[in-house]
Amino acid sequence: MAGTVQLEINADVYEAARRVAKLDNVDVSTLVEDLVRRHSEYVATLGDLDPAMPAFDLDHYEMQRDPDETDADYESRLSLFR
Asked: Is the whole-model pTM more than 0.85?
Protein backbone atom coordinates (compact mmCIF):
# COMPACT_ATOMS: atom_id res chain seq x y z
CA MET A 1 0.00 0.00 0.00
CA ALA A 2 1.52 3.28 -1.07
CA GLY A 3 0.71 6.67 0.31
CA THR A 4 -0.10 7.74 3.82
CA VAL A 5 -2.92 7.26 6.29
CA GLN A 6 -3.95 9.27 9.31
CA LEU A 7 -3.65 7.65 12.72
CA GLU A 8 -5.14 8.74 16.04
CA ILE A 9 -3.12 8.13 19.21
CA ASN A 10 -3.44 9.27 22.80
CA ALA A 11 -2.05 12.78 23.39
CA ASP A 12 0.29 11.53 26.11
CA VAL A 13 1.71 8.89 23.75
CA TYR A 14 2.17 11.52 21.05
CA GLU A 15 4.06 13.78 23.47
CA ALA A 16 6.34 10.89 24.44
CA ALA A 17 6.93 10.13 20.75
CA ARG A 18 7.62 13.81 20.06
CA ARG A 19 10.26 13.94 22.81
CA VAL A 20 11.95 10.74 21.61
CA ALA A 21 11.83 11.88 17.98
CA LYS A 22 13.51 15.15 18.97
CA LEU A 23 16.29 13.23 20.74
CA ASP A 24 16.74 11.06 17.63
CA ASN A 25 16.64 14.11 15.32
CA VAL A 26 13.70 12.73 13.32
CA ASP A 27 10.06 13.68 13.00
CA VAL A 28 7.31 11.75 14.81
CA SER A 29 6.11 10.06 11.60
CA THR A 30 9.59 8.69 10.90
CA LEU A 31 9.94 7.49 14.48
CA VAL A 32 6.57 5.71 14.46
CA GLU A 33 7.18 4.16 11.02
CA ASP A 34 10.57 2.86 12.17
CA LEU A 35 9.15 1.46 15.42
CA VAL A 36 6.30 -0.33 13.64
CA ARG A 37 8.63 -1.68 10.94
CA ARG A 38 11.11 -3.02 13.52
CA HIS A 39 8.36 -4.54 15.64
CA SER A 40 6.77 -6.25 12.64
CA GLU A 41 10.19 -7.69 11.66
CA TYR A 42 10.62 -8.91 15.25
CA VAL A 43 7.19 -10.58 15.24
CA ALA A 44 7.90 -12.17 11.85
CA THR A 45 11.22 -13.50 13.16
CA LEU A 46 9.48 -15.02 16.17
CA GLY A 47 6.97 -16.62 13.82
CA ASP A 48 9.84 -18.20 11.88
CA LEU A 49 11.22 -19.97 14.95
CA ASP A 50 11.09 -23.74 14.90
CA PRO A 51 7.97 -24.72 16.88
CA ALA A 52 9.75 -27.92 17.95
CA MET A 53 12.35 -25.83 19.79
CA PRO A 54 11.56 -25.93 23.50
CA ALA A 55 10.86 -22.65 25.23
CA PHE A 56 13.61 -21.21 27.41
CA ASP A 57 13.28 -22.60 30.91
CA LEU A 58 15.51 -21.71 33.86
CA ASP A 59 15.01 -25.21 35.25
CA HIS A 60 17.55 -26.40 32.67
CA TYR A 61 20.22 -23.89 33.68
CA GLU A 62 22.20 -23.16 36.80
CA MET A 63 23.19 -19.59 37.51
CA GLN A 64 26.82 -19.09 38.46
CA ARG A 65 27.32 -17.93 42.01
CA ASP A 66 29.53 -15.03 42.97
CA PRO A 67 32.40 -16.00 45.32
CA ASP A 68 31.25 -14.00 48.37
CA GLU A 69 27.53 -14.30 47.70
CA THR A 70 25.23 -15.38 50.52
CA ASP A 71 22.36 -17.80 49.94
CA ALA A 72 19.92 -14.90 50.39
CA ASP A 73 21.76 -12.75 47.83
CA TYR A 74 21.84 -15.65 45.38
CA GLU A 75 18.11 -16.29 45.79
CA SER A 76 17.38 -12.58 45.41
CA ARG A 77 19.37 -12.42 42.18
CA LEU A 78 17.84 -15.66 40.92
CA SER A 79 14.34 -14.31 41.57
CA LEU A 80 14.96 -11.63 38.92
CA PHE A 81 14.74 -14.38 36.30
CA ARG A 82 11.58 -16.05 37.58
From this structure: no
